[in-house]
Specification:
Elements lengths: L23 H11 L46 H22 L8 E4 L5 H10 L3 E5 L12 E5 L12 E7 L8 H10 L1 E14 L8 H18 L9 H7 L3 E8 L2 E2 L5 H18 L4 H12 L5 E2 L1 E9 L7
Parallel strand pairs: 1-2, 1-4, 2-3, 4-5
Antiparallel strand pairs: 5-9, 6-9, 7-8
Helix pairs in contact: 2-3, 2-7, 5-7, 5-8, 7-8
Bound molecules: S-adenosylmethionine.
The site of S-adenosylmethionine (SAM) has 21 residues, from α2 and β2.
Length: 326
């Protein structure tokens, strides 16, 4: 059976329905009409300068977002979601753990990990503080085995509250960028931090298309980020505003660390990116990306000698001031 357009009705673990691949001339005409790179328009050759075009840009229009993170895309019920997140944590955990250690997290701290996912950061925090850590997620499938050292809260953070000043640390990694209510949520998250405590946020930012070097990979990346904005309401640029936002919220000693995982160099990262693209396949094909372009991009990601960027990870933090600091 064949569906037209992105099929958000598909069940988890679904292997995507493929649309017929249009002929080469039809693809070229359609791509030109959309201003997208093709093999023959110059953008595709790695030896020629890349010409930005209309479709190298993407915007967040939350009015058109049709689902929330985890509803269909990146649902825990997808066959490859655990593998995808395991790849992510392998790539990011060493830097996250070192950053939290450097920020002074230690014995006795009361910590909240929001959107805890598979719980690797929550578990590290629990070891660092020598006690239980509160891990909240709207889907706790992957936290189930870690309950002994975590206080697992099964809740949507948009509809949950904690006590004012309840935590020494409120942490979220790769969550805020996907939440349409991100701007309203930040002051609420800060209210849960005790005066003198820390708010630490990590999110990914997309790069300029010229920084994706393989032509098919570049086209697919551009389509993927546009899709994330339009389907989920993800903001692939939000984290670049953290230093200003945290300063404007009155935080002290605001800092930022940029970490740039490289496909093929950071263990797990290629796995994460390949599975992310595989889950996005239905949307990407419906948006006009050719099946062979997508296959080429995924093969590029999976090649051990590939060295490409995907998103840059920005970790921002700040201390909630004591009343006397104001
Ligand atoms: C990209 S994963 C990141 C997981 C983890 N923070 C990490 O970095 O390994 C995003 C997580 O946020 C959770 N999430 C998404 N929307 C949420 C919401 N509104 N409330 C609570 N958790 C949410 C998802 O279920 C998922 O586990």
């Amino acid at each position: 059976m064949q569906h037209d357009g992105p099929d958000t009705r598909r069940g988890p673990g679904f292997s995507s329905v493929r649309r017929p691949v249009p002929g080469r001339r039809a693809r070229r005409t359609a791509a030109r009409a959309r201003g997208r790179a093709t093999e023959s328009d110059g953008n595709a050759s790695p030896n020629r300068p890349f010409r930005p075009c209309r479709h190298t840009r993407w915007v967040v229009d939350i009015t058109v977002a049709t689902e929330s993170y985890g509803d269909v895309l990146f649902s825990s019920a997808r066959d490859n979601e655990q593998t995808r997140l395991d790849g992510l944590t392998r790539a990011l955990d060493p830097v996250s753990f070192q950053t939290l250690h450097d920020l002074g997290v230690g014995p006795g701290w009361r910590c909240l990990d929001v959107g805890a996912g598979t719980g690797t950061v929550s578990s590290w925090l629990s070891r660092a503080v020598h006690g239980p850590v509160t891990a909240v997620d709207r889907d706790i499938t992957f936290l189930a085995r870690k309950r002994s050292h975590l206080d697992v809260v099964h809740a949507d953070i948009n509809h949950t509250d904690f006590l004012p000043g309840e935590f020494d640390l409120v942490h979220a990694r790769l969550l805020m960028m996907h939440l349409r209510q991100r701007e309203e949520l930040l002051p609420r998250m800060l209210s849960w931090v005790r005066p003198g405590g820390l708010l630490v946020l990590t999110d990914g930012v997309a790069l300029h298309p010229e920084q994706y070097h393989h032509p098919a990979y570049r086209e697919v990346m551009t389509g993927h980020f546009r899709m994330m904005a339009n389907v989920i309401g993800s903001d692939l640029h939000f984290a670049s505003r953290y230093p200003q936002i945290l300063t404007d919220m009155g935080l002290a000693k605001v800092g930022l660390l940029a970490h740039h995982p490289i496909i093929g160099m950071n263990p797990g990262f290629a796995t994460f990116v390949a599975h992310t693209l595989e889950q996005s396949e239905g949307h990407l094909l419906a948006d006009g990306i050719a099946q062979n372009t997508l296959d080429e991009a995924v093969a590029h990601v999976r090649r051990p000698e590939t060295r490409e960027m995907f998103i840059a990870m920005l970790t921002a933090w700040g201390h909630k001031p004591h009343m006397t600091d104001r």
